[in-house]
Amino acid sequence: MNITERTISILQSWGASPQQVQTVVDSGNLESQWEHISGIEECLQMLYPDSSHKISFLKQPSKSVFFEGKKPLDVICSGDEAMLSEAHYIIRSMLCV
Asked: Which domain holds residue 25?
């Protein structure tokens, strides 16, 4: 599997819509996006071993200041690489709390 296929596979496992997946694929540097998306997946696996809890976290509005009541999946799939990078940082920081 190449980077695009792996990225799509993770996004689909998170419950991303076809439009969200396409936004990520079309938005630019896929290598950088893969780094963030795979990093987020790694963190989420540690935080939420039960995949249903992981999906719930991603699809529910977040109380985190960064997400501002938005669903983390919407932020991750926004197509904005800076927001994706920040989402990765915020989710990774949840492991240190």
From this structure: 3-96
